[in-house]
Amino acid sequence: MRRRKGAFALISIGCLLLIAALTLGGYNLWDDYRAGQSVSGILDHLPIQKPPASGATPDYILNPDMEMPTEEIDGYLYIGKVTIPALELELPVMDTWDYTRMKIAPCRYVGTAYRPGFVLCGHNYTSHFGRLKNLTPGDSVFFTDVTGNEFSYEVAEKETLAPSAVEEMKSDDWDLTLFSCTLDGQARVTIRCRQIRAQDK
């Protein structure tokens, strides 16, 4: 009798754990879908201006220390969009980051597109930055600010950093850095990029 009760208890615990795992998995899939729908809606309403006329000197060239222009959507400020062709991603980028904002869209972690050391962070949703680990050196990344200036980058290096490696993450040795946490949250998938300027093309 005791063995039967013990076996029943173990089966019950196993069933509860299975239900919990299925529930968590279902929630994660739903949350990822919600995040993808969210960024699509934001892009539909993000006004990216036409690029400056050919031959005109952009404001950021004249003043690289200027603040990045922003556009407000639903109470949040956005500085532009990031495009990663190899992952078939085009995502709006918020002006500042916190965990609430990252549930909506990738965010600026630190820096500016007008100088080296520009860092963007995103949640590990598949529809956000969850597939950064699939990028390889030579892949293209583009950032377009809300005034229409487009910045072209090439993936140079991929590394994994600890969550405590804040100063390494913010290194201005790289023109652009993209990062997201791993699925277990124990590390940061980090993509380092070099800017491709007109004279390099």
Question: Which descriptors would you attach to this protein?
Answer:
201 residues, alpha+beta, Sortase, Chain: A, 9-stranded mixed beta sheet, 4 helices, 29% strand, globular
Helix and strand layout, with pairings?
Elements: H1 2-45, H2 59-62, E1 71-73, E2 76-84, E3 89-94, H3 99-102, E4 107-110, E5 118-121, E6 140-145, E7 150-161, H4 166-169, E8 176-181, E9 188-196
Parallel strand pairs: 5-8
Antiparallel strand pairs: 1-2, 2-3, 2-6, 4-5, 6-7, 7-9, 8-9
Could you write a compact summary of the structure shown?
The chain is of the alpha+beta class.
Describe this structure in words.
The protein is of the alpha+beta class and 201 residues long. The protein has one domain: Sortase, Chain: A. It has 4 helices and 9 strands. The protein has helices at residues 2-45, 59-62, 99-102, 166-169; strands spanning 71-73, 76-84, 89-94, 107-110, 118-121, 140-145, 150-161, 176-181, 188-196. Strands 1, 2, 3, 4, 5, 6, 7, 8 and 9 form a 9-stranded mixed sheet that branches. A hairpin with a 6-residue loop joins β8 and β9. The longest helix has 44 residues, at 2-45. The protein is globular. 28% of the residues are buried.
Give me the CATH fold name.
Sortase, Chain: A
Main sheet makeup: 9 strands, mixed
What share of residues is helical? 25-40%
Order of helices and strands: HHEEEHEEEEHEE
Give the full name of the CATH homologous superfamily.
Sortase
- Structural class of the secondary elements? alpha+beta
Question: What is the terminal-to-terminal distance?
Answer: 79 Å
Q: How many domains comprise the coordinates?
A: 1
The mean pLDDT is 86
Count of runs of 4 or more consecutive helical residues: 4
Gross CATH architecture: Beta Barrel
Q: What percent of residues are in strands?
A: 25-35%
DSSP, total strands:
9
Shape, per Cα inertia axes:
globular
The parts where pLDDT drops under 50 for at least 5 residues are: none
CATH class group: Mainly Beta
Give the radius of gyration. 21 Å
